[in-house]
Amino acid sequence: MTAFPVGLHQPIEHPGPLPANADVVIIGAGVIGVMTAYYLAEKGLRAVVVEKGRVAGEQSSRNWGWIRQMGRDPSELPIMVEASDLWKQLAAETNEDLGLVECGLTYLAQDQAGLARFQAWLDGVAGSGVDSRMLNAQETRALLPGCQMSIVGGMHTASDMRAEPWVAVPAMARMAARKGAVIVENCAARVLDVQAGRVAGLWTENGYIKAPEIVVAGGAWSSLFLRRHGISIPQLSVRSTAMATGPLPEVYAGGASDDDLAFRRRVDGGYTLAPSESHEFWIGPDAFRHFRTYLPQLRMAPFGRRYRLNAPKGYPDAWGIARTWGKDDESPFERMRVLDPAPNATRLTETRQRFARAYPGLGAVKEQASWAGMIDVMPDEVPVVDRAASLPGLSICTGMSGHGFGIGPGFGRIMADLVTGGDLGHDLHRFRLSRFTDGSRLNHGPHA
Ligand SMILES: Cc1cc2nc3c(=O)[nH]c(=O)nc-3n(C[C@H](O)[C@H](O)[C@H](O)COP(=O)(O)OP(=O)(O)OC[C@H]3O[C@@H](n4cnc5c(N)ncnc54)[C@H](O)[C@@H]3O)c2cc1C
């Protein structure tokens, strides 16, 4: 298995060269960009993905690997149901192992308020056909034998799945390439070429590519890129820490989490562990710019985040990062090929200890690897998936708010149809770009 997560230690697998022309250029080779390219190539279009670092170098290889319908916003749920089917099709089509297992995922409630939150979500998606169900304390204990966590019940979705992010997304990129997409690593997108009021191409650090359509799928960097072109999205990012244990006996084949601890079985016999609700936020200029938009979220979960000043140099919203640059200038994107935050050492110790206490039968829990990722978040915790009305030829798919890995194939398929005028199959109104400016009240996604 690839050393996790993906980083600059990974040799370049897609060196290019950058073609002179494309039907669609996609900025960013995370799960969203790669899957968009896959479905565009499947339609016979010339899709080119430019990636400033490595395929899946950022969030897409750093996540927990949960492919989850449970707890989704009602507007995302049908897309996630489609994405679950697409995951299975992709796993069947490729000759590589994505680590996809239909294992079930479980939310654990520490108190009655937690149970009430799960029930409220379940009531809100009644009739969706998703097999999520409430568990009482006894049923939860039967599902997680040997677990010593303090649990009053839970919610379980048997059809939810897991996969190995650092294996799956690079494999999906190879699948896209086999369909004819061109992926170019170490190739930062710098500036859009706009002619006669519409997109005409893209300037990259490796030169120019002519294309009538560009998709921004830049994860935590999307806001910085878009703002350079006069498009503001209230996207911020938070640090989330995770770790991998070495191989241990199987206590639960799926993934489970309460408010403090999340764990997931991996195919290599270890577990991926994380502090579930703990995120750290560096306050930068965008935090002030978008403060009012985030107020409802801050009121809802004031302690879910820890606040810090002065993001490390070169981070997307760091004080002092360049906000404007020209096509011939080195951009902030190539200066930070892979955003690779240091994990929080205190959170790692707590997490390891919590898992050891949850399963005392496992004995010592040793850390095999640890890492962190910057999760790109939106004020209502659902992404922007839209065409930019102010700039024909530009589409945006970003702000996955901590749950883009599972739904990635779904939004990739949708983006391919959005760009080509195909049948979207879903109502994207919830994900429109104008929701932050059209005076509508922001509707916060579920906190199940
Ligand atoms: C710790 C952690 C746990 C998570 N757990 C889960 C989970 O269990 N399940 C789930 O569904 N989701 C999870 N997520 C969220 C999920 O990983 C993300 O939502 C998803 O990977 C986002 O995909 P993306 O393609 O939008 O962005 P990314 O994967 O971040 O990819 C964006 C890419 O764009 C590139 N890029 C940016 N700007 C430019 C530019 N100008 N030029 C060229 N390239 C550029 C970047 O280098 C990057 O590779 C988790 C995330 C983290 C960090």
Give your account of this protein's structure.
The chain has 448 residues and is α/β, with parallel strands linked by helices. Helix content is 28%, strand content 24%. The strands form five sheets. Strands 6-7-5-15-16-17-14-20 form an eight-stranded mixed β-sheet. A six-stranded mixed β-sheet has the order 9-2-1-13-22-21. Helix 3 packs across helix 12 (404-420). The longest helix has 17 residues, at 77-93. The radius of gyration is 21 Å and the shape is globular. 52% of the residues are buried. The mean pLDDT is 95. Flavin-adenine dinucleotide (FAD) binds next to helix 1, helix 2, strand 14, strand 20 and helix 12.
Question: What is the compact description of this entry?
Answer:
Helix content is 28%, strand content 24%. The protein is of the alpha/beta class. Strands 6-7-5-15-16-17-14-20 form an 8-stranded mixed β-sheet. Strands 9-2-1-13-22-21 form a 6-stranded mixed β-sheet.
